Amino acid sequence: MSNQLDQVFAALADPTRRAILAMLLEDDMAVTDVADPFEMSLAAISKHLGVLTAAGLISQEKRGRVKWCKIEPDALRDASIWMQGFGQFEPVNLEAFERFLAVELPEIEEADDPVGPSA
Fold first, then answer.
1. CA–CA separation, 4 and 59 (whole Å)
2. Is the whole model's pTM more than 0.85, yes or no?
3. Listed residue (27, 33, 8, 17) closest to 70, CA to CA
4. pLDDT tens by residue, 44-83
5. Average pLDDT, whole number, for the chain?
């Protein structure tokens, strides 16, 4: 279980991967649609998706010629149980996680933007 937790926390440590998870909370998406809002190559997005898949946070499925990604709803269960062991964390629920990402991601995107927020 320790290796799995390491993979989950490592996957969540990257803001791009957290943004991808936030997008997938809405619905399943084709890899090309996942890549669309990011200013990086499809290969780079594929590497991020590979990390999320290896951590069990998402799954990928080929439908025809298109590869689709979907979030795995129980993926954070072990991490949530581990954090509860400290007695100060509530169980992770995906709706609360989605609200957290919605609040945190705009701040991260602004910090990553060298020009700053648009006027």
1. 15
2. no
3. 27
4. 999 999 999 999 999 999 999 999 999 998 888 888 888 7
5. 84
CA atoms within a 13 Å half-sphere pointing along the CA-CB vector of 14: 16
Q: Which residues of 38-62 are buried (b: 16+ CB within 10 A; e: fewer)?
A: eeeeeeebeebbebbeebbbbeeee
> Positive or negative, the Cα torsion across 74, 25, 19, 119?
negative
Q: Whole-angstrom Cα distance, residue 30 to residue 20?
A: 12
